[in-house]
Every structure is written in C-alpha cells, then in structure tokens.
C-alpha cells in the first residue's frame, strides 16, 4: 500500500498501475462520471497529478487486517490545473483521505474511500 501511495499517487508512476491493481479491481466510492475499474485508477491519478502540482501524499496511519489495508492520508500541493471542472486557483491545498483496500494476489482489488471534499473545495475557491 505504501509503495502504491509513494510511487503512483505521489510520483505519478501510472506505468505501475497494471502491476499493482488487479484486473478485476472495483472502486465502490467513485464520483459521478468516474470509472470504477483499473482504468479509473489511471484516469483519477492522472487528473490528480495534473490538477495539483508539487503533490505530496503522507501516510499518517496504515493498518492491515488479513486482506484489508486501511490508510489515513494527507494530500498537499498547489491547485495549478483544472480539477473536475474547477479552474486552477493557484492556492495551496491540504486535505485528508481515508481508504480501505482489499488485496487479492498481492494487488488492489477493491477500494472504498472517504475524502474531505469540503475542505478541498474551499481551498480551491469553489466554495466560500
């Protein structure tokens, strides 16, 4: 999980997605218009990297139980590109995400997330 966060989310290594994400992957908490499969991981990660320059992802907590891994992460960066229709503000952003991932054969196969979207929307200027 830490390798996925560091290499894919933080460094943008989209080339590792096929190795780390199972072909049967399902994201159970996608937003409208997002894909819930492995291609969706690629598209969402690319959009995140394009919208937020200097992106850093810090794993605050990581707990495993059997085939499940839960993380509490802090994302930081600067809003320099469009984020799902929100034009770039140039503002610094910092928001938290809690993920639960199920693994099969050493790959992510299911995903659930809770993200602090309200804080992110305020920081990008989309909400007052």
Number of strands: 5
- Tally of separate helices: 4
Largest pleated sheet: 5 strands, mixed
Helix content: 25-40%
Structural class: alpha+beta
The amount of beta strand, in percent, is 35-45%
Descriptive notes:
Strands 1-5-4-3-2 form a five-stranded mixed β-sheet. It is built from four helices and five strands, in the order ααβαββββα. With 128 residues, the chain is α+β, with helices and mostly antiparallel strands.
Topology:
Elements: H1 2-10, H2 17-20, E1 21-27, H3 38-51, E2 52-65, E3 68-79, E4 92-104, E5 107-115, H4 117-124
Q: What features would you highlight for this structure?
A:
single chain; 128 residues; alpha+beta; five-stranded mixed beta sheet; 43% strand
What is this entry, summarized?
The chain contains 4 helices and 5 strands; from the N terminus they run ααβαββββα. By secondary structure, the protein is α+β, with helices and mostly antiparallel strands. It has a 5-stranded mixed sheet with strand order 1-5-4-3-2.
